[in-house]
Specification:
The chain is α/β, with parallel strands linked by helices. Helices cover about 50% and strands about 10% of the residues.
Length: about 300
Amino acid sequence: MSSSVAVIGAGTIGRSFAFLFARSGYTVRVFDPRDDLAEVVSSLQAEVTSAASSQNESAAQIGSIEAADSAASAVAGVSFVQESGPEDPDAKPELFARIAEAAPADAVFATSSSTIPASFNAEHLDRAAAARVIVGHPFNPPHLMPLVEVVPAPVTSSATIDAAVAFYRSCGREPVVLKQEIRGFVGNRLQNALMKEAIALVQNGVISAPDLDTVMKNSLGLRWSAVGQFEGMHFGGGPAGIRGFMDHIGPAFAAIEDLPVDVDPSAMSEVFDQVEQAYGPTPTPQAAEVRDRIQRAVLEARGQDV
């Protein structure tokens, strides 16, 4: 794989990916039509250098980040493209057509999209280019969160899937390949189910929003940082494992009733008020720093590079 990769889009996700790729030793070309791209790239390069220095890494161990003046110049000669532009279904096909025209014939075209499937972008390309389109969906921020959901279209080649998995692993990520396209992929579907239940519990007066967060942080969230859902169930069943868990707990869980829930913003004023009273009207950089520090500590405890 070439040591040069491209990031199209310098928003929150694109900048985080560019940082990750450069920290992993790649030369990263970034394109975004924003007027301050040069300043953004310069700041990212400074962050990469500072992070490497804090880890006692030499300049030879890290990559670099360069600004490109067009999508075509960004992808010329690269082996991997991470598209992180706006979630605009009208603009994506034209953007992928430009990328496919200018990139090498073996480059992988990954999109960070969480709503637009690879098949939508692939259907507007010729067969050879379409076979190299794939979703590489991160959790924010991708330079810190290890998961990347790799979601192929039906026309995506096995070589593309393998190349995407190998590339993300080379950046210290944990790629998981989904067997089929599905709205929301897996992480967001799980998050969606939990979000609706959390809103329902607050709307129905069972618990306050900050107390629900306390429950999460001191039970399920803590457990899930060490084991996943099914592994936790396997532990919970004792010697009989998951079969024992479902024999003993399954019927009681199945009897838990669904609460009414309304996730329309117009119906969530009480939830909004409780969250803003607990955490302020907008998230602060200081709170984000605390979150990231804790998440880094968890990753370090798990033996993963951060």
